[in-house]
Predict the structure.
Amino acid sequence: MEREKRIMLACPPMNINELLEGMGVPPFTPTVDHSLAKCADCSTDVWIGPRQREAAGRAPRATLVLCMECAIVEQHKRGGGIVGHLGGGDGRPRLVR
Ligand SMILES: [Zn+2]
């Protein structure tokens, strides 16, 4: 499938809380159901959620796992577009030290 038509799965990079610092948003906490994946563009480690992982596993050639920064760049290239949310956010928080 052409890259522009693939569904972007925007995942928080591991340093998401550093990026969000001072922006007044609650810190991101991955849940026990999150696992690590790599951004397709910059290879940074990202937290992929269970629904995103399922979507990527079901349709690897129709999806694009990107960190949030690359996802924003990709979205600009595409001239905007819709960012969907797969739901979730209700998992048990993982303890991160
Ligand atoms: Zn990236």
